[in-house]
Design a protein that fits this description.
Elements: E1 2-7, E2 10-12, E3 18-26, E4 28-39, E5 46-51, E6 57-59, E7 67-72, E8 77-82, E9 91-103, E10 106-113, E11 117-121
Parallel strand pairs: 2-11
Antiparallel strand pairs: 1-3, 3-8, 4-5, 4-9, 5-6, 7-8, 9-10, 9-11
Length: 123
């Protein structure tokens, strides 16, 4: 009923920038918190940044000052602007959303994930 699709990953040199985007679609009536997580090879998935529907953000210490999260409630999108990328930022980045949606006329709430987008930081 709800799909999240990420875009914007790729290869960048250390110090470079990338912008990730995620759009949520489906029978959505409201999206609470949206966020980005990442998982590097051999490591657990970790939270990177999140933003509530009112715009309150939470940024991981490891990326604070370099990454910025923003969202467009009207378009059901969330973006992650990544500047000053480091080799250790390389990972698969996943979009996440806490969504209120309709299913067969019934209001439901669920936690959804995108399929992930690869970010590679290498010279």
């Amino acid at each position: 009923q709800v799909q999240l699709v990420e875009s914007g990953g790729g290869l960048v040199q250390p110090g470079g920038s990338l912008r990730l985007s995620c759009v949520a679609s489906g029978s959505i009536s409201f999206i609470y918190t949206m966020g980005w997580y990442r998982q590097a090879a051999g490591r657990q998935r970790e939270a990177v940044a999140s933003i509530t529907s009112s715009g309150r953000t939470n940024i991981a210490d490891s990326v604070k000052g370099r990454f910025t999260i923003s969202r467009d409630n009207a378009k059901n999108t969330v973006d992650l602007q990544m500047n000053g990328l480091k080799v250790e930022d390389a990972a698969v980045y996943y979009c996440n959303a806490d969504v209120h949606y309709w299913s067969n006329g019934v209001a439901r709430r669920g936690d959804y994930w995108g399929q992930g987008t690869q970010v590679t930081v290498s010279s």
